[in-house]
Amino acid sequence: MSALAEAGRAFDEQRYVEVAVAAADFVLTRLRDGSGRLLRAWRGGKPGRSGYADDHALMAEVCPRLYETTFDIRWFDEARALADELLRLFWDRERGGFFQTGSDAERLVVRPKELFDNAVPSGNSAAADVLQRVALMTGEQEYEGSGLSALRLVREQLADAPTGFGQALSALDLYVSRVPEVAVIGDPQGEDTRALVAEVTTKRFLPNHVLAVAGPDDDQSREKVALLRDRVADDGKAIAYVCERFVCRLPIGQPEELAAQLTGRRS
Question: According to CATH, what is the number of the domain 181-263?
Answer without folding.
Answer: 3.40.30
